[in-house]
Amino acid sequence: MSTPLPPEIRAEPTRHGTRYILPRRQTGALKAFGCATIAFGSAFAGFAVFWICAAAFATQRGGFSLGGVLFAMFGIPFVLAGLAIIGFGVIAIHGHCEIEFEGGELRARERGGPFRWTRRFQLASIRRFMVSSGAATINDQPVTTGPLSDVGALMAETDAASPRLVVMGYPRAWMDALAARLSADAAAQRGKPLGETLSIAPGSTMEESLVKEDRLEPPHGTNIRVTQQGDAVLAILPSTGFKGQARSLLVFAIVWLLISTVVLAAFVAASVSDNVKGDKPPWFIFVFIGLFEAIGIAMLTGAINYARRKASLRASRTDLMIVRQSPFGSKTFKAGRSDINFIRVGPSGTTINDVPVMELQVHSADGKKHGFFAGHSNEELAWLATHLRRTLNVTADEGESLEPPRQDAQS
To answer: Which of 310, 314, 323, 330 is the most exposed place for a label (fewest CB within 10 A)?
Structure first.
C-alpha cells in the first residue's frame, strides 16, 4: 500500500514512474527578500551589459579589433551570474518543485517563471532519505508564526561524503510523506529497499543526528579497516590524502602564499631598483610581509600533516589504545576501561563554511576530553564510535544507561 500524500502534492504518472508536483512555496515575509534579490541581480547584470557595450564601442571605433572583442566578452560571465541571481529571486517568490525518477536518476527540478534549476542524484548511489524539521530563522531569530514556522527539508544520503538537499521550504509533514513515497519508488526501481528514513528532530542538526546513530555497517567507499579478534576490535586508518579539511586548508595556504609572495617580490624590486624615485620601502614592511609568509607556510605544513597522518586503534573489554602517526612524529593514547566515562562523536571546535568539523571523542572519568580523527567523514566517525562503545561497554553520553554489549557487530 502506497503512502498517502497531502492533497496539495499532485502525483502524475510518467514513462518511468511518477512525477510529484509540489505547489508554490508560501514564503510569506521572505518574498521581500526575493524582490531584493531580483533587484540586485538586475543591477549586477545591467552593469555587466553596460560594460560589454561600452568596451565594444571603445575598442571598435577605429576598426575591428579581436582583442577588443575578447575584452568586451569579459563581461559575459557577470551577465550570467546576474541572471542566476534573478532566477533565485524569482524561484523564492513564486517557485515550486517537481520530483521524479528518470533515466536512472532522481531529479528535483525547481521552476519559477522561465527559470529552471535541477538537482540530480544517481539512483544507484542513494542509500536513504533524511527529513529535518524546525522553524526557519530571520536575523538569527526563530520564526514562530506563519508558513515559515514549520518548514522541513528532504535530503538524500548518497555515496558522497555528505547528504545532499533534495527539496526544502515545505511543511515537515509533507517532507515525511514524500520521503516515504520516494523510498518506495526507489526500492521498486532498484529491486532492493533503501535504508530507513532518518528523522531529525526539531532543535537537532543533521550532524548531531548522524553521529549519534549506531552504525554497524562500514560507510560506502571508506578505506578504514575494522576487524574483530575475539573480544577485541582492531582498526587501521590510512592517510586520507588531500580531501575535505586538508584540501580546503591546502588551497587556502597556496592562495595565501601566492598573494604574499607577489607583494613581497614587488617591495623587494622597489627597494633594489634604481628607477624608483623617492624613499625606499621601510624595513618593517618586509617584517610584516614576512609574518604573512610564515603564516602561509604554517598552514601549508598543517595541510600536509592532515593529508599524510594515519592511525591505528585497539579496543578490548579492559582497555583502549590509539596510535597516531604523522610526518612530524607519533602519539599514543592509552586508557583503561575504568578510566573512560563515555565515547561519542562531537564538534572539534573547527568549522568550515559554518559547518562544524566533527571528531571522535573519548571522555575520561576525570572530566577530560580527548579528540581524534578530525577530518574523517561523520559516517566513519560514527561507525568507529559504535564499535568502541560496544566493545568497551560504554555509553554515548553522560547519564545514559548501559546496554549489554552486543556481539553481532560486523567488520
So the answer is: 330
